[in-house]
Design a protein that fits this description.
Helix content: 40-55%
Bound molecules: adenosine-5'-diphosphate, zinc ion
Shape: globular
Radius of gyration: 16 Å
Number of domains: 1
Number of strands: 8
Strand order of the largest sheet: 2-3-1-4-8
Length: about 210
């Protein structure tokens, strides 16, 4: 089963994708994580992506689709959680095309909704593990030891794009480009919308209910 988790930055896509992949034997494909890994490893893709990410802009579709095709070609798991991809109509069309070539398809499209004020509050308090990408929040999910990941002992850091001006830009990009995916997928899928202000466990229960139906 292939599931798209969409929604504005900070809506909890990454957290939910991690919960889902820890319970199902699925792959977690986060384009954001892939680009951050490239940036850490200083690859050409990383160098290209960094300029856009630091400005809260989207990485160009052709770069994103190359990364996605590479992932799909190597994936061995029975299902995939797409987190933060696709983000534009061009990416959605590209994804449909490749899945088609593999006789595969998207089964669920889920949007987690969250208002802008809540987004800014959450993202400025977000910290991420450099090593395993586990996500913390200084307000409602602080690590046991400050600055250290509970899961792997890795170092926690604040993403360079989690500052207020960049968060506002990312939200604008979401409203301008990613929200339009609802109309794209409405033609072929039922779109499920979940209230992201619910706690993370409740959002998770909602998602599990949907996919177990
Ligand atoms: P969030 O959903 O919280 O914004 P992500 O980690 O998914 O976080 O994305 C961080 C940044 O990486 C985005 O603002 C964008 O610059 C880039 N990015 C991630 N996924 C994509 C994508 N599918 N298309 C274009 N850019 C992307
Ligand atoms: Zn960790």
């Amino acid at each position: 089963m292939n599931i798209i988790l969409s929604g504005p930055p900070g809506s909890g896509k990454g957290t939910q994708a991690e919960l889902l992949t820890s319970q199902l034997n699925y792959a977690h494909f986060s384009t954001g994580n892939v680009f951050r890994d490239h940036i850490t490893r200083k690859t050409p893709i990383g160098e290209q992506a960094q300029k856009y990410i630091n400005q809260g802009k989207l990485v160009p579709d052709d770069v994103v689709l190359d990364v996605a095709k590479d992932f799909l070609a190597h994936n061995q798991k029975p299902g995939i959680i797409f987190d933060g991809f696709p983000r534009t109509i061009g990416q959605a069309q590209g994804l449909d095309k490749v899945l088609n070539e593999w006789q595969n398809k998207i089964d669920f499209v889920i949007f987690i909704e969250l208002p802008e004020t809540e987004i800014i509050k959450r993202l400025t308090a977000r910290r991420t593990c450099l090593t395993c990408h586990a996500i913390y929040n200084l307000d409602f999910k602080p690590p046991r030891k400050p600055g250290i990941c509970d899961v792997c002992g890795g170092k926690l850091y604040q993403r360079s794009d989690d500052t207020e001006p960049v968060i506002k830009q990312r939200f604008m990009v979401y409203e301008g480009q990613t929200r339009a995916l609802k109309d794209y997928y409405k033609k072929t899928h039922h779109i499920y919308e979940i209230d992201g202000t619910l706690g993370k466990d409740q959002v998770f229960q909602e998602i599990v209910k949907l996919i177990k139906k």
